[in-house]
Amino acid sequence: MNKKTVSNLIILSIPAAVILLAFFLIPIVQLIIVGASGEEGIAAYASIFTKPRHLESMIATVLLSAFVTLVAIAISTVVGLFLVRNRFWGRETLISLLTFPLAFPGVVIGFLIILLAGRQGLIGAVTKSLTGDKVVFAYSIAGLFLGYLYFSIPRVMLTIMATAEKLDLSLEEAARSLGASQWRVIRDILLPALRPGLIASGAICFATSMGAFGTAFTLATNIDVLPMTIYTEFTLNANFAGAASLSIVLGLITWVALFIARSLSGSTVAASG
Amino acid sequence: MKRKWMFNLQLAFTLLICAFLIIPVILSALAGVTVNFFKGLESGLTFRWIIEVWGLYADTIFLSFFIAITCLIVTLIIGIPMAYVLARLGGRPARMIEEFITLPVAIPGLAIALALIMTYGGFRDFRASWLFILVGHVLYTLPFMVRSILAVLSSINFTELEEGAASLGASFRQRLFQIIIPNAKPGILAGSLMVVTLSIGEFNLTWMLHTPLTKTLPVGLADSYASMRLEVASAYTLVFFVMIVPLLIAMQMASGSKPKKKKQLQKPKQTLASRTTK
After folding, report:
1. In Å, how far is B38's CA from the nearest CA of chain A?
2. Of the candidates A263, A258, A222, A148, the residue with the CA atom closest to the CA atom of residue B108
3. What are the angstrom distances between the C-alpha of A26 and each of A194, B86, B107, B239?
4. CA nearest to A78 within chain B
5. What tens digit of pLDDT does each residue of B95-149 get?
6. pTM above the 0.80 mark?
7. Distance to chain B for A233, nearest Cα, Å
8. Which residues does chain A have within 8 Å of residue B207's beta carbon, measured at their own beta carbons?
């Protein structure tokens, strides 16, 4: 590259650089500073372990996210493999329907769960006519779980499908011709081959669930997931340092999870919501 | 025989999952046009709720459109040059810069919104204007624009084209506007659709950044979920779906139709997989 090209490239990157510096880098540094400026100082960053309320919220969020991730992977592997390996009428439509919810904001997903399992929801109406008891769980941890599952399935499925498309079918055929049972083919050939995709999609799913705010906000459950804790600290308790330090910790967790996903699958940007 | 049985079982499971994702959407659409959702469809169909939504929330719909289009313009102006620089740079430095640009997507919106408020909240006029929301949306959508263009640029041999043009005496400006941008079009189109869709649906950042006078559609939605009757909330959600679904279909079509240029490395599925909003 000659001098002229270099100066051209620098000029071209100035607009993006200025915006990222002014509205991202400086604010994040400010957030880190505010996080350490409360009564406890730097110790605020350890509040996840020292404050029972924060610790509880952290454990609940991690457990919920991990469980959602496992279930989403199990469901999406079955569905994704099926859609990649079979050609049938309506397949494209099914794929479209299964991926549409990707663009739904968390608030809308929360509302959809209310329509499904809320006080006037479908599940309530069906169970009432069947058993006489109205089952309502939208506002409990089960509702939260269902909401997280709703936005996780499309995401995880797409990543798994992308991996499954590259699988070498001849390996499976070879194993079968040597007499391996279906179960052994799945355990010894299919799952190991899918592993990078599974880990990547799992990491994306985990990160998204950890940072999910809209769904929890709409369902307004009594379980405080981490983003809700941050929100209450900031708006209700005016504990800016606490909110800032928790945000930084949460941001680190989601970034590391997505970094793992990216280094395994190469081209995945997953946002957190 | 056994295969057929396995196929049917898997199909049934897939349909079940599909039902889980789609039935609530249908319920919401129906509730939005039903006179009384609690009584069911027998109570009759009506546009009353949609008209009510229009009266209450039309301004949020306009603001969302306005912010989405402005956001698109900004991400085009700063994103196209940035993607070109990254494609030209290549290697480790480019990947590190890309990682940095992608950070606002990897960190929960809530955290970024807090950072913005804690830094610029004191500038009253800025804080109270729609520009404050725009800043958040630009940060959040820029990575999608840059990556989308970058994917196309790194799959074609644009340096060769550029050198050819340069040897014929084309200036840098001419090369940029007549070679790079036309060739990057599929990526620019996919990125643009993504930016608009994401901006219209963005909630996590916007909820923190908005003021009572700058409410966007998702903010209004959250508001209606908390305070309006189910039918109104559903009608509002229906309006949102009507806005977002054409964009989604366009997005799927854009990523499905492969441009005729050489072999595209761009993975159609991944472009969608990438996005997220919760």
Report:
1. 7
2. A258
3. 40, 23, 15, 37
4. B10
5. 899 989 999 988 999 999 999 999 998 899 999 999 999 999 999 999 999 999 9
6. yes
7. 11
8. 213-214, 217
